[in-house]
Amino acid sequence: MADIKINNMVKFYTLCLLANGPKHGYELIQELKEKLERRISASNVYPFLNVLRKNKLIKFDKVGKRDKKTYHLTHEGKNFTKRMFSKFGDLITLAVKPRITTCPCGCKIYSGGHAEKIRGKTMKFCCSHCAKIFKPK
Ligand SMILES: [Zn+2]
Question: Which domains does the chain possess?
Answer without folding.
Answer: 9-97 (1.10.10.10), 100-134 (no CATH)
